[in-house]
């Protein structure tokens, strides 16, 4: 066997493999021998089929299989032995394969294109990180209380329609043969200022008439009201009638001990303690989100400030070969996003290699446990029963999806550790902001 590497440039190369008969024939002979023990051919007892007949019937297909298997092993072994940093997977030269005479050739040559990770350098000194710290204001506490009271409130059925009510009924187009729908509903606060007075104060069995295109302040509300695709809903015109069948109103929970306990548990019994606990929770939530954004900024800035000349044409071809359902248009549209993710993976791996950052199995398990505790709050209570349940849940999760869950969790831990390392090397500028400013900056980032 002869294997050579032809570097075309810093990011593209090809591996050429030449196989002689001595390289593959022992594998072919072994496979024929193994097959002879189980082959079921009419007229012959199992294990008694003449070798010549087996070779004539199956020799070519076995030869092709064994050569391809040997090629895959050899290419993979060559890449590992020579520590080639590649992107994607080796792509075989189809012209070589199509020109082979499997009946008569004894020596075979194959070529594989590969994409290489070129030499590059990242510079943590170029990072300009900002750590936004939210100052919780009294207005934020009030807004959070209002939200919680709504979530823990109850629904009543008032006699008359109010500003914040949900109204159910039947809608129909006045014109004969037009649109109509049973079990329609609308939110009064989604109506235009001109349409609200038509509904306010109305009762069950009242009928409201309106222009369909002038009723809602937002186009999406019309889609939800009619349950039609947006394009079809936008085409509706003319007078419509809404026959009110029922009215729902959410009544916020009262600020009392029962409400405090429902939100935070038995330890919170007074309004003062409730507000203090809420302030602590908000601060903790924003602090956690601030760290999450900082990690995202680390990733984005490292990708943007690091020059890596990737083999773009090879990668586009690899994406097309390995994802048959992707069109050229889709690959072109999504390629920049793919490259950003790939660059981040390459940069992470280099940082980890240079600074000895590794992930242990115990860290993967711990991450999975924390994730389950976040989803199932009761698991945070430390007792033997919960501990046993958590162990079983995590074990099943990490083994599921053929190990993909394990690898996804591993990558999450790996990314966090690399980001944490960078975080230690670069001191972010601390910026005090309000909750509204923090939320607005998040919208801008998206």
Task: Please give a quick description of this structure.
The chain contains 15 helices and 11 strands.
Key terms:
alpha+beta, 446 residues, four-stranded antiparallel beta sheet, extended, 3 domains, 11 strands, 15 helices, Chitinase A, domain 3, five-stranded antiparallel beta sheet, single chain, Alpha-Beta Plaits, Trigger factor, domain 2
Report on this model:
- The protein is an alpha+beta fold and 446 residues long.
- The protein folds into three domains: 2-116, Alpha-Beta Plaits, CATH 3.30.70.1050; 124-135 and 290-445, Trigger factor, domain 2, CATH 1.10.3120; 154-251, Chitinase A, domain 3 (Roll), CATH 3.10.50.
- Helix content is 52%, strand content 17%.
- It has helices spanning 21-36, 51-81, 94-98, 138-151, 196-199, 219-226, 230-235, 257-264, 271-305, 312-322, 328-355, 361-375, 384-399, 404-425, 435-445; strands at residues 2-7, 12-19, 86-92, 108-116, 130-134, 154-156, 166-173, 180-187, 207-211, 239-251, 429-433.
- The strands form three sheets. Strands 6, 7, 8, 9 and 10 form a five-stranded antiparallel beta sheet that branches. The protein has a four-stranded antiparallel beta sheet with strand order 1-2-4-3, sandwiched between helices.
- It is extended, with a radius of gyration of 33 Å.
- The two termini are 53 Å apart.
- 15% of the residues are buried.
């Amino acid at each position: 066997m002869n294997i050579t590497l032809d570097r075309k440039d810093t990011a593209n190369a090809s591996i050429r493999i030449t196989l002689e008969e001595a390289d593959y024939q022992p594998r072919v002979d072994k496979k024929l021998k193994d097959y002879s023990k189980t082959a079921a051919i009419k007229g012959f007892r199992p294990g008694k089929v003449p070798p010549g007949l087996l070779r004539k019937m199956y020799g070519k297909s076995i030869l092709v299989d064994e050569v391809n298997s040997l090629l895959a092993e050899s290419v993979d072994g060559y890449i590992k032995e020579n520590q080639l940093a590649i992107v994607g997977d080796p792509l075989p030269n189809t012209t070589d394969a199509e020109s082979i005479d499997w009946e008569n050739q004894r020596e075979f040559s194959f070529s594989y294109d590969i994409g290489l990770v070129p030499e590059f350098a990242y510079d943590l000194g170029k990072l300009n990180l900002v750590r936004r710290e939210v100052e919780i204001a009294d207005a934020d506490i009030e807004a959070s209380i209002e939200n919680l009271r709504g979530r823990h409130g109850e629904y009543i059925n008032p006699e008359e329609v109010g500003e914040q009510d949900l109204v159910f009924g039947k809608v129909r187009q006045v014109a004969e043969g037009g649109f109509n729908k049973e079990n329609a509903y609308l939110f009064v606060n989604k109506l235009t200022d001109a349409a609200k007075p038509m509904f306010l104060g109305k009762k069950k069995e009242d009928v409201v008439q309106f222009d369909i295109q002038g009723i809602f302040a937002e186009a999406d509300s019309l889609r939800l009201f009619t349950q039609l695709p947006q394009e079809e809903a936008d085409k509706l015109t003319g007078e419509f009638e809404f026959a009110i069948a029922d009215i729902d109103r959410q009544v916020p929970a009262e600020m009392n001990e029962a409400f405090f306990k429902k939100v935070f548990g038995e330890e919170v019994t007074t309004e003062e303690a409730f507000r203090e606990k809420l302030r602590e929770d908000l601060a903790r939530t924003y602090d956690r989100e601030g760290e999450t954004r900082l990690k995202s900024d680390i990733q984005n800035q490292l990708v943007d400030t690091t020059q890596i000349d990737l083999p773009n044409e090879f990668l586009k071809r690899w994406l097309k070969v390995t994802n048959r359902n992707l069109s050229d248009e889709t690959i072109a549209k999504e390629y920049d996003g793919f490259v950003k993710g790939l660059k981040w993976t390459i940069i992470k791996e280099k940082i980890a290699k240079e600074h000895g950052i590794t992930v242990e199995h115990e860290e993967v398990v711990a991450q999975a446990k924390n994730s389950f505790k976040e989803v199932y709050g009761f698991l945070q209570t430390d007792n033997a029963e919960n501990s046993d349940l958590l162990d079983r849940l995590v074990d099943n999760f990490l083994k599921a999806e053929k190990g993909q869950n394990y690898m996804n969790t591993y990558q999450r831990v790996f990314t966090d550790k690399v980001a944490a390392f960078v975080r230690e090397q670069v001191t972010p500028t601390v910026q005090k902001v309000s909750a509204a400013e923090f939320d607005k900056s998040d919208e801008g980032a998206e």
